[in-house]
Design brief:
Order of helices and strands: HHHHEEEEEEEEEEEEH
Helix content: 40-55%
Largest sheet: 6 strands, antiparallel, barrel
Number of helices: 5
Structural class: alpha+beta
Strand order of the largest sheet: 1-2-5-4-3-12
Length: 283
């Protein structure tokens, strides 16, 4: 208490000055309209600016919540947009030449439709997982096709899933022919471009052009004859120079593959068993 009294005694003239100054300002602004107007305007401006800063600070603090809400809403809109695009595609879809061609070839072939679960195109030996398995009637050695051409062969199965060996696998060998001819060879992938494969052993006397259609030959127990594979993109000589080596632009883009169908004809298994017996007799 004594310290406070000493402080007031020492600086009382400054305190008296501030009190009198305050009283003078009150009298000035209260009894003079101009000064009062200036004071109110300035005070409102200052208060408004402070309020604006306060609101900005509050918005900044809640910015994370707002961003999360916007992100969630954006995902919802993207999902709705994707669903609308799929519905529009189904309503306005017009069968392409390839799809119509496949439909004609597979008129009497029973198929099971499924979806791709996972796939890859960056390895030399790629595989595709689909949502069909033994419970759906799927077995190894069954052919797999899409709306744009052949995909590959079922490699192994479980109860509800299967692994497919696609064309983009170094172990894949599909017997193919040039459409409208009897010249055939084996389609294989060189591990580079996922849109192209190579058709070997086409004889030198064969007549064909770039752009000709390549289809399955039917010389296997997996695919019937006439399924679309791709088109001739380039013609090269084989390493030994005795035949042609064709670069084929594949009809199926594995990277974008979503829907597939499994060919489940019963005579495939019968033909495969007969071929195995024939092979065993030659050994």
């Amino acid at each position: 208490m004594q310290s406070l009294l000493d402080f007031l005694a020492k600086y009382y003239h400054w305190l008296l000055f501030l009190v009198l100054e305050g009283i003078s300002f009150v009298l000035l602004f209260q009894f003079n309209h101009y000064h009062n107007s200036v004071w109110l305007t300035t005070a409102n401006t200052v208060v408004g600016q402070v309020s604006a800063w306060e609101q900005e600070a509050i918005r900044f603090v809640h910015l994370g919540e707002v961003n999360a809400a916007l992100t969630e809403r954006n995902l919802q809109l993207e999902q709705q947009n994707a669903m609308m695009q799929e519905q529009l595609l189904e309503l306005t879809h017009d069968s392409t030449f390839t799809e119509q061609y496949l439909a004609d070839v597979l008129t009497d072939v029973h198929m099971i439709r499924g979806k791709v679960v996972t796939n890859s195109i960056t390895h030399r030996d790629n595989y595709i997982t689909i949502d069909l398995g033994e419970a759906d009637g799927v077995k190894p050695e069954m052919g797999v096709v899409s709306g744009t051409g052949i995909v590959g062969i079922v490699y192994m199965t479980s109860a509800h899933y299967s692994i497919v060996m696609p064309l983009l696998n170094s172990k894949s060998r599909i017997s193919c022919r040039l459409h409208g001819t009897r010249y055939f060879g084996y389609l294989k992938w060189d591990g580079t471009d996922p849109l192209y494969a190579t058709l070997d052993d086409i004889p030198r006397h064969a007549r064909f052009n770039v752009g000709d259609v390549v289809e399955t030959s039917g010389f296997s127990a997996v695919f019937p004859a006439g399924l679309f594979v791709g088109k001739v993109a380039a013609i090269e000589n084989s390493d030994d120079g005795l035949s042609y080596q064709l670069r084929i632009h594949l009809g199926t883009d594995i990277a974008r593959l979503q829907d597939i169908s499994i060919l489940t004809e019963s005579f495939y298994e019968e033909q495969h068993q007969l071929e195995q017996k024939a092979d065993s007799l030659q050994q």
